[in-house]
Design brief:
about 300 residues; alpha/beta; Nucleotidyltransferase, domain 5; Rossmann fold; five-stranded mixed beta sheet; four-stranded parallel beta sheet; 12 helices; about 15% strand; DNA polymerase III subunit epsilon; RNaseH-like_sf; BRCT_dom_sf
Length: about 300
Amino acid sequence: MHDLNFTAVDVETANSSYASICQVAAVQVRAGRIIGQHTWYVRPEAGVGEFTPRNTQIHGITGDMVVGAPGWRESMGRLAELAGEHPYVAFNTAFDKSAISQACGLSGVAAPANDFHCALVLARRLLQLPRHRLPDVAQHLGIGAFQHHDAGEDARVAAEIVLELARRERASHVSHLWPARPAPSAGASAASKYYGRAYTASSKELPAPSPTADPSHPFHGRHVVLTGDLESMGRWEAMEAIAANGGTNGKGVTKKTGVLVVGDGRRSVTAAELAAGSSKERKAHAYMAAGQEILLITEPDFLRLTR
């Protein structure tokens, strides 16, 4: 693994705004070995600096703990220096990359141009597990106990997961783990994906809710519907993640729908966009206007909830 070079990253946020990064970590992997681990608090920018109880409950970070910490502009400079020209790896790239990008936009600095690779996608592809949350994958691979939702710990474990999977796959370069996607053939049909298992299976054949799922999870006991493509996984895999967390998969939006997961690279969904979106989105908008409660989730949030 002498050519296996990357920097594992993880961020925690103060509130629901992805730009509210309050902790960041970078774990440098060079020539297949961890050579440096760096973790520091970040003072979120004005306007997104509130620490909500829900987020503090997850990671334990409070506003008092980031007083005097560097802002994102300085933190991004340090992160870029630690990563150099090497790619970033995160266990939930859709979330971490989006958070870094939004924090950069709010701070007026350029977002990193480095490639981002997702260790969660890699684990889903290579490991047959009931759930692919970070603690589940770590335990399966024999990685010791760690403090989940501490950025430094999560980044270190993500790096160790990639190194162990690279060893098993005899991969010596990140391109062996995350090969470039081939361009679609000229004769490929845009509708061909609709012949996949997630589209042809009946509602009764979809992954069923796990009886051992955490009852406090937002998906538990609710009907969950997917609309649009996810960048990080196929639809059947997403349905399995929903079921593993106690959700009931639905093929269409109905009066029972409680959660709508919106893909196609969207990072937010407004009421106007919902009203002009896909048929599922338009139907969800109509039900919501009539008083039905439907939780709207984009891919970064989906991965954060299922990792």
